Amino acid sequence: MLKYPWWRADGDNGGRYVKKYCVYPDDIPEFVRARSWTSGLVERQQQTLEASLMDLADDITYAIHDLQDFMLAGMLDPTDAQKALEQQLGLMEKGDYVDFGGDGEGSKRARILHEKSAHKIPSPLERAYRQAVNHQEGFADREHYIDALTSTLEYFETDLSEHYAGTLRQDVQIRKAFGDIVGTLVSDVVCRQAPGWKDGPHIHPGAEAWHRILVLKTLGRSLIVDSVHVGVVQRSQRAALVGLLQDLDDWLASSPALKEIPEPLRTYLREDDAELSEHSVLQHKGVRTRRCIADHVSSLTDYKAMQWAAWLRGGSLPVLGDL
């Protein structure tokens, strides 16, 4: 829970982290107590050293290993990556390129209005750059981003230029290429007394490696994660999860006997209300009960969650031994 020090209310109040948060309002006292040892060492919305290390490891994983897995699965065509990189490089190297880098809020708003009037839709790599110069102001910049685009394009034009056909040679070549990139990124990690940017981490990749990670992550997300294939999977998973949460909520609202409720949901409900016994009839308590439902669903494997979603909708019938 300490990886992201941003409360749900931060986004509600127009904060920088609208979507990425890990603390709900009723957990704030416990969160503050757990982080009390950091008082005077990090800002309220700043990650601790341990949390920033986890975040850095995740960034490298998303940037490198996801792309590697996609290539080895034959899901990523190197020419698509080359086209995206060449397009962004061509855009940013133009003399009339409208840089959304930090020149003050007024200038940014003017540029946004200019683009809207021209009916331009920014590419994923352009959106990633704009978000970076906004969130990592003073650290993210145009020249480093262009360098990162160029070095990544060189990889896709040489070591990663062939569409994966399953040969041993390609397998070795792809793994070596991505392994070399990991080594370069890790060797460029720095630890500073001052954070890299406002509310940023004290340990992070140097500017060159940081921008390269941003480019690689964006490629993986835009070419694969945001593709129609993954989109259909995500939409079906989301529908199943929403249905499961709603069906469990309806079940508990019907005042069932506690002994009818599956584990670990039953344990979560008893921890929330010490007066409950195995023979109690459950009374739905709104948000408190729904938090228990969310914790229960989060504890399930993907397979088990999909099983329960089908069972509660009558799509399939469980065998007693399955429960």
Verbal overview:
With 323 residues, the protein is mainly α. It has 3 domains: 1-45, no CATH class; 49-226, no CATH class; 230-322, no CATH class. The protein is 59% helix and 2% strand. It has 13 helices and 2 strands; from the N terminus they run ααααααααββααααα. Helix 4 (78-92) runs antiparallel to helix 7 (142-157) and helix 10 crosses helix 13 (302-312). The longest helix has 26 residues, at 228-253. The chain is globular and about 70 Å long. The mean pLDDT is 86.
Write the layout of secondary structure elements.
Layout: H1 8-12, H2 28-34, H3 49-72, H4 78-92, H5 105-117, H6 124-135, H7 142-157, H8 168-187, E1 189-191, E2 203-205, H9 207-225, H10 228-253, H11 265-272, H12 287-299, H13 302-312
Antiparallel strand pairs: 1-2
Helix pairs in contact: 3-8, 3-9, 4-7, 6-9, 7-9, 10-12, 10-13, 11-12
Helix content: 55-70%
Order of helices and strands: HHHHHHHHEEHHHHH
Q: Give me the oligomer status.
A: single chain
List low-confidence stretches.
Answer: none
Rg over C-alpha atoms, rounded to the nearest angstrom: 24 Å
**Beta-strand percent range:** under 5%
Measured between the Cα atoms of the first and last residue, the distance is 29 Å
Round the mean pLDDT to the nearest integer and report it: 86
Q: How many H/I helical runs?
A: 13
| Main sheet specs | 2 strands, antiparallel
- Number of discrete domains: 3
Strand order of the largest sheet: 1-2
Number of strands: 2
3D shape: globular
Structural class: mainly alpha
